Amino acid sequence: MSDNHECGCSHCHAHENEKKLLPILLTVVGALLTACSLLPFVGEIGAKLMQTAAMIICGFPVFVDAIKSVSKLKINESLLLVIAVIAAFLLGEYFEAAAVAVLFRVGELLEGFASDRSRKSIEAIFSIVSDSANLVSADGTIKKVDADDVKIGDIIAVLPHETVPVDGVIVNGAGSMDASAITGESIPVAAEIGSKVSSGMINGNTAVQIRATEVKSQSYAARIAEMVEEAAQKKGEAQRAITTFAKYYTPAIIAAAIVIAVVPSLITGDWNAWVYRSLVLLVASCPCAVVISAPLAFFSSMGAAAKNGMIIKGSRYIEALAKADTVIFDKTGTLTTGDLKVGNVYASEEFGEKDVISLAAKCEYYSTHPIAKAIAARAGLEELKDISDFSEIAGGGTSVTASEGRILCGGARLMEKNSVDISEFPHAPVYVALNGKAIGAIEIDGKLRESAPETVKRLRRLGVEHSLILTGDSAQQARKACAQCDIDDFRSNLLPEDKLTALEEIKDGSNGVIYIGDSINDAPVLAAADVGIAMGLGTQAACEAADVILTDSELSRVADTVHHSKRTMAVLKANIAFAIIVKFAVIALGIIGIAPMWSAIFADVGTMIICVANAARLMKIKK
Question: pLDDT class for 13, splitting at 50, 70, 90?
Answer without folding.
Answer: very low
